[in-house]
């Protein structure tokens, strides 16, 4: 019998991984930067991440989503991961956490 996974626990582990990935132009991780809109985990350990970029012309538009996908897939509990990019709503500084704003001197 397969072990039931704790999707909340897995979600927290995924967020920890996302906080290790930094935007190359801004010295803040992508989670605190507000680039991650949603992390969905199902009971089959499949993960879908909805994220955006600071701009559609972002220099890491190709590599950053791949890095997110690969890092999340590297977690033992994750069977598969998919990253979807959206620009709706577009990213603004309002999406940044207080911590990120403080780090960048915006508070």
UniProtKB/TrEMBL annotation:
Q: Which Pfam families match?
A: FeS_assembly_P
**Sequence ranges assigned to domain MIP18 family-like in this UniProt record:** 12-85
SUPFAM superfamilies linked to this entry = Fe-S cluster assembly (FSCA) domain-like
PANTHER family to which the protein is assigned, alphabetical: FE-S PROTEIN MATURATION AUXILIARY FACTOR YITW
Protein name listed in UniProt: FeS assembly SUF system protein
